[in-house]
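Meet our chain:
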Amino acid sequence: MQIKHLAATFGRLENETLDLEPGLNVIEAPNEAGKSTWTAFLRVMLYGLNTRDRSPRADKRRYLPWSGSAMAGQLELSAPQGEITITRRTARSNAPMGAFSAVYTGSSQPVAALTAADCGEQLLGVPQDVYERSAFIRQSGLAVDQSAALERRIASLITTGEEDTSFTDAAERLKRQLNARRHNRTGLIPQAEREIQDLRATLAELSALSGAVQGDLDRQRAVQARMEELEAQLARQDAADRAEAAMKAGLPIFVSEWGTSAADGNGGVFLKESREWVDWMDQKGISWANWSLCDKNETSAALRPGAPPDGPWDQSHLSESGRFMFSRFRS
């Protein structure tokens, strides 16, 4: 913040003005020229006038204008918010400097963040007691009585290098947070640990149940596979029984189509069942035809995809089903 211009009717100052330049300004004047009055005026413009003080040396008595005029003043400054003009004047005799306004310089637009009570603290970032014990030096010297706010700021500067950041306050807050988390019964950490234990127990139960379910599923699949195997055996036995009955009745039998796979051309190759089937047909002297002599991409096909359609074929052209069938041809 930069103070640019002051205008005061305050104590010995009667419609006096003071212009300040950027940087350090030194005012040299004889005794009783108003130097200390200007510093008191600046403090009042920033923090207001204590009208409750009824002592003989109260500022409201000490700085009554000598001319008998009403106490008034104006302060122009440059702040992060912009160019600001602050005015304090006396609207009632029992409330000197009680009327306050803060507007953007050259306009009537109020500066919303600034009020009569907290103007100085908003602009400087410190309350009045800290200002009076640091930046403001009275005619009688620097105040040295205790100020908790100033002590905190000095301690913060020493420990962290920043006056608004206190190592002690931060350490205390961390300690309180840590205690709140570690307290045996109500702390957050014990509570979280109990929840973790409960969740682990629940997870163990679910894992055991999952294992049991998986075991049941495995047994179900095994039973299903066994049922399908028995159904296939029954189907084969039924076909053999019907063929035996037909031959006993003197009817000719020829197996026009059978394969080493499931009925849809995939699944398998079922070599054990195919071998038993061919052995039975050979034993009964039954002629047969196998499905299928093609290179389709299915397990029932005798040829691998891409095999020459008209031959000749070697072992590299034959599928697993084809190698089995060709071996039976040779035998």
User: Anything to note?
Assistant: The mean pLDDT is 86. The longest helix spans residues 188-248. The radius of gyration is 53 Å. Residues 146-182 form one domain.
